[in-house]
Amino acid sequence: MGFGVIPLMEYIARRAFLAAGLRPSTVTLPSTSGDGEARTIHYWAPPGEPRLPPLLLIHGFGPMATWQWRRQVGPFSRRFHVIVPDLLCFGASSSSSSPPPSESAQAAALLDALPALVGTAARVAVAGTSYGGFVAYAMARAAGPERVGPVAISNSDLLKTAEDDGAFLERAGGGWTHPADVLMPLDARGARRLMELTFYRKQAGAMLPDFVIRDIMKKLFSDKREEKIELMNATTVGTDAFQLTPLAQDVLLIWGDHDQIFPLDKAFAVKSCLGDHVRLEIIKKTGHVPQMEDPDRFNKIVLDFLLGSQGSPSNEH
């Protein structure tokens, strides 16, 4: 029974993407190190050359990029050429790199893929949620406003520290020694707690029997589990290797007011560090994934920002 829920989730998400005109595809990236390293990016996008300005939607650490963005692809596709990739080591994308890619390496891979996705000249808007916000920021800083911008970042603590990780484990209620234990649960107890931390509203999945939830979690979080733990450890945000600096692009920060993974007070700190090009929007009665809990409000905020941004891709067409 538990495994029957996963195909249903995949079917619902896939139907939303297909209805928006997106189709699955794959691009193999050239080696950058000369050692034949294989990097493959799986993505969803409309077939053919972009007829609308491109918009890249970058997922977080949760399962299935399609599930995380399924309520956005329809509305966004009316105004943008929407591209939803699987990051390296997620979904159907893969990388043989060792050590595992940092968020900057994830950004570099997406930038390497852009010529195949949108051509060599197009400027792409980017939206990232949670870990995807780290990648979106890294893309914008690495490529500059001529290639990437504007940038929407949702519930992504770019000032995260080891102390923040410790506070998160305390909020989770104890019994876990690493954020990965909470964010990638394999049992019913962990899954219920993750849902409570992620969503403001009670989720229907929390009402399922333990054995069903346990089967679902094993299916969702056992795939590439070790690689994802290594990805968490490879993240430079919160280390001496990372410094948050303002971007030249217009930036939108979105935050759920009840986020228990990256609390709301961090939104104001991130905004202060990112400078004058930043607009902060707080979505009430949502948690860590406002794009899922209040998609209508989220979509309106993002579309208004992208369409109104100075020098946005849409304004250039």
From TrEMBL:
Species in which this protein is naturally found: Oryza barthii
Lineage: Eukaryota, Viridiplantae, Streptophyta, Embryophyta, Tracheophyta
Protein name: AB hydrolase-1 domain-containing protein
All residue ranges annotated as the AB hydrolase-1 domain in the record: 55-300
Xref: InterPro entries: AB_hydrolase_1, AB_hydrolase_fold, Meta-cleavage_hydrolase
Domain of life: Eukaryota
One Pfam family here: Abhydrolase_6
